[in-house]
Write a structure and sequence with these properties.
Helix content: 25-40%
Radius of gyration: 16 Å
Structural class: alpha/beta
Distance between the termini: 43 Å
Bound molecules: S-adenosylmethionine
Strand content: 25-35%
CATH class: Alpha Beta
CATH architecture: 3-Layer(aba) Sandwich
CATH superfamily: Vaccinia Virus protein VP39
CATH topology: Rossmann fold
Number of domains: 1
Strand order of the largest sheet: 3-2-1-4-5-7-6
Order of helices and strands: HHEHEEHEHEHEE
Length: 193
C-alpha cells in the first residue's frame, strides 16, 4: 500500500504535477470521458492545482477553468482564473455575465479531518451538500458533477438526492486512491432540465 502511494507520489513529481491526486481525475476521465476540449469547468477545492493542470495540459484546447479554494493557489495559466475563498461565499455573477454556465463542476474539496472516520464522513457529506447547493444553479442542463466524499451511513441518501437532478449517478473509487481510505468519488452524469 505504501509502495503504491510512493509510486503515485513519485510519478506526480516526475510528471511535474502539483499533487498525486491528479491520477484520480485521470482515471475518472478515462472511465467516464466527461470532460471535453471546449468545456468551461469549475474546479472547487483546486489548490495546489493538479486537477486543473491536468485538464489544461491534456484536455482543454478551447475550454477554460475557474478554480476556487480557501487557500492560495500558485497555478498560473491564461485559461485558468483563480478565486480565493469559500465556495459558499463566491458570487459568480460577474464571471458568468458574458459566459454560458459551467459544463462541468468538479470538487476534490475535503473538510478538516480527524482520527475518527465517522466524523470525517459526516463532515464530508455536509461539505458536499454545501458545494452541491452552491453550484447546482451555475451548472448547465446536461452538465456533469464530479465530487469527492467519504463513505459512510449518509452516502446513500446523498446519492439519492443527486438522482433527482441528474440522469445517472455512480460511485467511483480510483486505483490511485489509498485502498484503506474511505475516500470515494461520485460521478453525476447529465443534469436534468
Ligand atoms: C485535496 S485538496 C485538493 C487538491 C486538488 N484537487 C489538486 O489536484 O491539486 C482539497 C482542497 O479543498 C479546499 N477546500 C475545502 N473546503 C473548501 C471550501 N468550502 N471552499 C473552497 N475550497 C475548499 C482545501 O483548502 C484544499 O486545498
Amino acid at each position: 500500500m505504501k509502495n503504491r502511494q510512493d509510486y503515485y507520489f513519485k510519478k506526480a513529481k516526475e510528471e511535474k504535477y502539483m499533487a498525486r491526486s491528479v491520477y484520480k481525475l485521470q482515471e475518472a476521465q478515462k472511465k467516464f470521458n466527461f470532460i471535453s476540449s471546449s468545456d468551461f469547468i469549475l474546479d472547487v477545492g483546486c489548490t495546489p492545482g493538479s486537477f486543473s493542470q491536468y485538464m489544461l495540459n491534456q484536455i482543454l484546447r478551447q475550454g477554460s477553468i475557474v478554480g476556487v479554494d480557501i487557500l492560495p493557489c500558485t497555478l498560473k495559466h491564461e485559461k485558468f482564473k483563480f478565486i480565493e475563498g469559500d465556495i459558499k461565499d463566491i458570487d459568480f455573477s460577474d464571471i458568468l455575465q458574458n459566459k454560458k454556465l459551467f459544463d462541468v463542476v468538479i470538487s476534490d474539496a475535503m473538510p478538516n479531518t480527524t482520527s475518527d472516520k465517522e466524523t470525517n464522513h459526516f463532515r464530508s457529506i455536509a461539505l458536499c451538500s454545501m458545494i452541491f447547493n452552491s453550484t447546482i444553479n451555475i451548472l448547465k442542463t446536461d452538465g456533469h458533477f464530479f465530487i469527492k466524499t467519504y463513505d459512510g451511513g449518509d452516502l446513500a441518501e446523498f446519492k439519492k438526492n443527486l438522482m433527482d437532478y441528474f440522469q445517472k449517478v455512480s460511485f467511483f473509487k480510483p486505483k490511485s486512491s489509498r485502498s484503506e481510505s474511505r475516500e470515494i468519488f461520485i460521478f453525476a452524469y447529465s443534469k436534468k432540465e
